[in-house]
Specification:
The chain has 99 residues and is mostly helical. Helix content is 58%, strand content 11%. The protein has a two-stranded antiparallel ribbon with strand order 1-2. Helix 1 runs antiparallel to helix 4. The two termini are 15 Å apart.
Length: 99
């Protein structure tokens, strides 16, 4: 078939015929597992969203509260969003059934 690849040594001895689809499926599954671990770690590193009693007194309007996108918390939120989108796309690709 067009989607098979033969691994051949320099002497011309044929080692094994490998389907490219099988190799791609294995690589995508490994990336999927690594991505799920990254999502778990990034979510656990984030702070809670409850402002507590400081929000009642107006203490939430600090410099870091207004510029949260440039802080470490903002970066974690961006990483979470990107990795979740990649996770969902990869889950849909792996679930297509052509693998």
């Amino acid at each position: 078939m067009w989607y098979t690849c033969s691994i051949v040594s320099m002497t011309g001895y044929k080692y094994q015929e490998v389907e490219i689809v099988t190799v791609l499926n294995t690589i995508l599954t490994i990336v999927f597992i690594i991505l799920s671990i990254v999502i778990t770690v990034v979510i656990l590193m984030q702070e809670g969203k409850s402002a507590g009693l400081g929000a009642i007194a107006g203490a939430a309007d600090t410099y870091w509260g207004k510029n949260k996108g440039r802080s470490m918390e903002g970066m974690l939120v961006k990483i979470t969003r990107i990795s979740v989108i990649l996770f969902l796309v990869l889950a849909m690709v792996l679930n297509l059934g052509i693998w």
